[in-house]
Amino acid sequence: MLPIAVKLNDIFTFNIEVPYYNWFYPLQYGEEDLTSFSPGTISLNEVKGVYVHFPFCSSLCSFCPYIRTNIHDANLRNRYVQQLICEIKSYQRQEKPEIQCVFFGGGSPSLMSPNNFSEIMEAIKTVFHISSGCEICVETNAMSLKPELCSAFYDYNVSKVRIGVQSFDPCSRELYQLRATVDDIVYSTKLAHSYDLQVSFDLLFGHHGQSLETFLVDIEKANKLNPDTIEIYPINLLAVPDRYWNSVLSLGLKGLNARTRLKCFKAGRDRLLELGYHQWSGHGFSRSPEFDLIYHRCVYGTLGGIIGFGPGAVSFNSEYIKWNHPSIAQYMSDMQKQSMPTFKIRRVFDYERLLKKIVIELPYYGSCNIEGVEFIPEISNRLSELISAGVVQRNSSDLVLSDTARLQYATLMFYLLPKKDKDVLGQEIFSDCARLGNKFRADMLWL
Ligand code: SF4
């Protein structure tokens, strides 16, 4: 399963495409004795931001592996918001730590009422000091963004909405069972811009029935709507629910092999660069060369810690990683009974703390500063292999990834992981492949 560096037509790549694209590091496994732990005692040192999960959607998209449900009404959403507020307030201390980012993910946080949103923001303000210029980002379904909510966003200085476009192609939209229309995307983009909100589009590629040409058309159509950033993600076929595979069967679509997917990524990236975008992360492209996201710098970099609220939410700093139980029903029942969600927590090992820059930040951002970083021999050896293959350049204080290697950033993340982590993640990938049987063909993985 270990990826091996190879060259294909002068493009550096690996012999395998690891089909997981982003993960938190340290990995979430194992747990410690929790008897002495409560949110009231967890360290808020280094915390730079907050993640809020809003798990409700109007309908379910076939590819979506996130924690979400389409069974809800306004009463349930309001009850959930009160429980979230209770979880947020359980972190209250005498001193308020200053935060620089708030990220609303889901689900579809655009289904929040303006009142839901302002109540959550006020609860955050009772626990944290929100810095001036704090980055506030909200994931959005084009179908549900409304002027009243944008107005509340404006009042709280929301910086950015992320619209899950995925594709403009009718066949891909049918496969994905997207209920928002292209008109909804056009409307919500204009609406967000009219409230001074930056707009980011998510586009997916590598799914069944897609071609390089249709992906490039998606990029042109996205660009015409003038978003501030475009994120292009390969679909994670190991994580998609059964409804995706049922949709593939009923539409009679053929899968793409890993080599075609890689070509899509390269062509998509080249076109975005031609159109004047700048690559700011493994999958993110922005019109402004200065663009950056503090939330991502915490999760995929080493800027600081995050406290996450809601089912499945992850909290971490350099001392611990904690993850809430992923079930929405369990979260709501826990909050009702004991005002605290079921969670797991463990201490961060020294090697994980030391290596986060190398194993995540370098692949994800294409460079990292290594002043003061201590290497373990296993990682030094792997870095030396990459340096001699011309994939990584080392100058006095930085490691820099070659342009072509950035196309395989997720595989590089896996390649650089220490053996212990690789065994955990590799096991997960093997069991996902086994679960899917022949739906997931070998040529979707091996180049
Ligand atoms: S992709 Fe977004 S809108 Fe679709 S089901 Fe997932 S969370 Fe909901």
Keywords:
17 strands; binds iron/sulfur cluster; Arc Repressor Mutant, subunit A; 447 residues; 2 domains; alpha/beta; TIM Barrel
Q: What strand line-up does the widest sheet have?
A: 9-10-8-7-6-5-4-3-11
Question: Which structural class do you get from the secondary structure elements?
Answer: alpha/beta
Percent helix among the residues? 25-40%
Radius of gyration: 21 Å
Low-confidence stretches: none
The CATH topology name of the largest domain reads TIM Barrel
Q: Mean pLDDT, rounded to whole units?
A: 92
Count of individual domains: 2
Could you characterize the architecture of this molecule?
By secondary structure, this protein is an alpha/beta fold. The chain has two domains: 44-299, TIM Barrel; 350-447, Arc Repressor Mutant, subunit A, CATH 1.10.10.920. Helix content is 38%, strand content 20%. The protein is built from 14 helices and 17 strands. The strands form four sheets. Strands 9-10-8-7-6-5-4-3-11 form a nine-stranded mixed β-sheet. β7, α6 and β8 form a beta-alpha-beta unit. The longest helix has 18 residues, at 419-436. The model has no long low-confidence stretch (mean pLDDT 92). The structure holds iron/sulfur cluster (SF4). Residues 57, 60-61, 64, 66, 68, 106-108, 141, 164 line the site of iron/sulfur cluster.
